[in-house]
Amino acid sequence: MASFSQLARQLGCSRPLLKPQPLIQSQISSRSITSAYSPKPEHAPFPTKIPEQFLSQIPDRFKPRIQKRMKIYPPPPSARAACKDPITTVKESQLAVLDPTGERGTLFDYRRNPRSVRVGDILRVVFKNGDPFSGVCLSIKLCGIDTSFLLRNELTRVGVEMMVKVYSPNVQSVEIVQRTQKRKRRARLYYMRKPKHDMRSVENVVSNYLRQQSALTGQRPSSGKKR
Amino acid sequence: MIQLKSMLNCIDNSGAAVVECVQVLKKKRPATVGDRIVIVVQKQRSFGPDSANNSGIANKVRRGDIRHAVVVRVKKEMQRADGSLVKFDDNACVLINKSGDPIGTRMNGVVATELRARQWSKILSLAPMHV
């Protein structure tokens, strides 16, 4: 039984071939017959001047299509055209606020100003809150508005370093206490952190300078804490 | 950058000279100025051979004691609000008790002003100088 049913199933695919096909003849004959050409009926034009209350009742697909125009915007103006060199502009605008006289800038611009602060000089900085800090200048970093200098001193036998921003509004004054005797051959005197080259405390140099200053101006030495 | 095993100088007269950090409190990163740490006293200050007789300047802590401390100086540079950086040549701390009062009565050495922002004014007032 099983073998018979399997055979029948395999033969099943050939069943359409065995079927009589009387339709084929009629199809061929129908194709050969020409018929009158009837054009596709055109849509009647949508009536104009329909009152508003009727127009709202007509479904959307029958309404005349109003083609929406995509709005095309002009490209935004180039930022490059507005400002050729934004970094310099910002820098200058900041400098105009923070250092209007340009005095502070030239004091540290050792590339152009021969009378500027050099590394190895002893500087004294007084901050806005009255705290002074003095020390040997180990390095000057010239980088626009971020220009800073590094001071090193020894307070209570502990080395202290402070990197101060030149244009910081917290800095009230910067004065040169003592210039370096010999021009330093390096731009950054980081070797002065080593015990062999360390200048140790510069307090006596600074206090001498302050005493001289007060003698010259005829004033009492400033009441700020000695550093 | 004070972390586990960091050795610090103790700059008060509590009797400790060199301490080792064993824990940074309330922080998952290295401690800096103003942070509270747990320390072990590794070296104690000797006030001469006759210090044992004189109870007035006896060490308040001994070697091996576990105490709390506040970091007052760090080698790692600290940035201030105006962009300036401050760094010291050593790491130093001051011992405190559990309630936050300093154990020592005097301090020798400069400390960082950042302590004021962290409410350690008592330590700041003991210090001879601050930067």
Would you write up a description of this structure?
The complex is a heterodimer of chains A (227) and B (131). Chain A has a domain at 87-217: SH3 type barrels (Roll). By secondary structure, chain A is an alpha+beta fold. Chain A has 8 helices and 5 strands; from the N terminus they run αααααααβββββα. Chain B is globular, with a radius of gyration of 14 Å. In chain B, the strands form 3 sheets. Chain B has a 5-stranded mixed beta barrel. A two-stranded antiparallel ribbon of chain B has the order 5-6. Chain B is built from 2 helices and 9 strands. Chain B has a single domain (7-130), classed as Ribosomal Protein L14, CATH 2.40.150. Chain B has helices spanning 114-117, 121-126, and strands at residues 7-10, 16-24, 36-44, 66-73, 78-79, 85-88, 92-96, 110-111, 129-130. The interface between A and B is medium-sized, with 19 and 18 residues. Chain A: Belongs to the bacterial ribosomal protein bL19 family.
Which terms summarize this structure?
heterodimer; A: 227 residues; alpha+beta; SH3 type barrels; five-stranded antiparallel sheet; 8 helices; 5 strands; 18% strand; elongated; disordered C terminus; B: 131 residues; mainly beta; Ribosomal Protein L14; five-stranded mixed beta barrel; two-stranded antiparallel sheet; 2 helices; globular; Ribosomal_bL19_sf (chain A); ribonucleoprotein (chain A); Ribosomal_bL19 (chain A); ribosomal protein (chain A)
